[in-house]
Amino acid sequence: MKKISLPSVAVILSVSLIVGLSLASHQALAKEEFITIHWAQWAPADYLEKVSRDFTAETGIKVIVEQTPWETFVQKYNTELIAKSDAWDIIVGDSQDIGNNVVGGHYVDLTNWITEHEVDKTFTPASLTYYAEYPKGSGKYYAVPCEGDALAWAYRKDLFEDPDNMAAFEKKYGYSLGVPKSWDMLKDIAEFFHDPANDFYGVAIYGDNGYDSLAMFAEQVIWSFGGELGNYSTYKVDGYLNTEGAIAGIKYYHDLFQFVPPGFGNAFYIKSNDAFVAGIVPMSCNYLAFFPGLANKATNEYADVTGYFACPPQVGLDGVERQFAALGGQGASVVSYSKKKDLAFKWLEWFIRPDTQMKWAKAGGYTCHADTLASDEFLNATPYNPTFKTSMEIFKDWWACPEYDELLRTFSEIIADYVIKGNGTAEQALDKCTEKWKSIFEEAGYYD
Amino acid sequence: MSIFKRSKENHTRNGQVYYRPMRDITLLRLFIFPTIILLIVINVFPLFWSLFLSFSRYSAKMPNIWGKNPRMIGTANYSRILTDPDIWIRFITTAKYVVLSVGGEMILGFGLALLIFRSNFKGKGLITTLLVLPMTMSPVIVGLMWQLFYDPNWGSFNYLLGLGRIDWVSDPARNLYSIVIVDIWMWTPFVMLLSIAGLSAIPRYLYEAAEIDRASWWLKFWKITLPMVYPLLLVALIFRTIEAFKIFDLPMGIVGRGAVAPRLLALHLYNVSFVTWKTSYGSALGYIMLIIIIATTSIFIKYLKKAKQ
Q: What is the pTM of this model?
């Protein structure tokens, strides 16, 4: 009889074990009830999975949070939704993508559910508008505000409060160094600290990562300086995007970009946080969701001397003071193709409860639940929560129509050409963008 | 007629019908048909479907409504692409990338092959294996790894070369070259391996005859080595040109797909097809790229056939 060699036995046993375990786990998963939530790969998704363990304990329904890197997050779920996939029961999708998914029929209409469960009364109105409503002002809702977020700032208190720095700053600019009271002051501070010869730079802000990083920074300075992206109801762009205020905002972005560290042309949240924790900038702009890493001594040696502030106001050329922050964050939507909508709704019912919202906030999630947001418990939970509250009062979002991605790509390419590459002027860039956007809306039939 | 019909030569013995074994041709068809069906479904159908879409206005993210999405617009996508001044910048940038990276790989790969083939030192096999390693890695991992190396603030590339804080990644004036460097680093071993194979196949007696005739080193290289390795070098050139023309993974990993990324055609194709979901426009661009690749490859293949003769 032919003998079987030891390696062959080992291979056969290993394969049998893997197949056996896979089958067993598949059967085990098939037996238990579970829902799958899709979100971007970041800390809040981990917090959501952790908090959802309480839901599992209450109901026996397991919650799996699948995460995709930010760079391909939207593409991935768009592709799945186009294929009418039931891979996910809930998608925590980007706010600006809501129109796209509503028109495509991918999200379940939650209007009645939201009224029945009084989400419209218990969550902040602005969060409901930006994360859940489409078309804006229609009263039709397709999501529950899940993670509120906005761009805000972290700064080095030790550098800002250093007597030598304070004296030198006052001597140079004629006013005291401190938390910026305007975008102009913020630029002065960046210029003051910018010292490339000693590997120290003025500020860490976003470049263009291919998604929305540049657009998000640009829109908040456009609004703060008195410009607009367009009229969200009529889709008119001319006379909004190419106005003096918008030009001043984009010119400001270009001028501020002169003080970033090398390699920031494609910077997004990682580079912004990295520069701050490496101690090469005195302040950095980022989404609030990325601030936990800055407040943690294990990941930021300057955590104890890190302070936070919301995007500052700015007096525009028309003499009016405005204060805006670019909206981040996402709403949780039920996928039309889910075969477990009943379980998904159970999870939503649990998620909107005040006690869950407090747990969510304590775990590190940014709640949009009005009472939780206003509570001292929330405000004192982290050093940046007061900044979050302020930011939630001044945020504003990008276009949410199905063409948002084309508007985003066009805008980023044209504005980056001026802000990052230094070609042309702010006026030329915005004129070009206005023309492109007009043709996009025209082609989509908004002016018919 | 069924292709799987049993042979007519079945016979009966003791009342029992015996079937002849399946004919070879039937068995052959049985094995080939599933593959052909699979190829038609996943290769041929999408090819024709995308060709159809390239003559329409269609976005995959919108609901399919015949006459509206897709809506036939003739050759509008093609004329729009070819009249866009930006697309010519992308063609030129891609051509520049192909020439620099493939050129560098051919020169370095062939040079390394000559050095390794002619020298006889201890550990030659190990060195060859080590040189081949970059080629065995995943391009996405290579891209992300080099993105870290290139970082001007904490990367090791500038530090090791003593270059200061040069921005290799997000400076549009420089990042095309940073991708070329990585492409050359990764794919030079491929040219080297093919060249070594070619060099090994050259009969020794040709060199011996040349030595008797007192031919110089240059003459031996020009008249024997190069002509004998030429067909394999052309094969390497064809493969590398096709790959370099549609390069996507390395630039995506190193510089991303943002506005500061080099204006390479494949990145643009990704952006229009999967970021802005202009599916039909992307299909037309894909076909233009396909035609260019086929045309370029045909020229090389013509030379390859000539070399074989």
A: 0.85
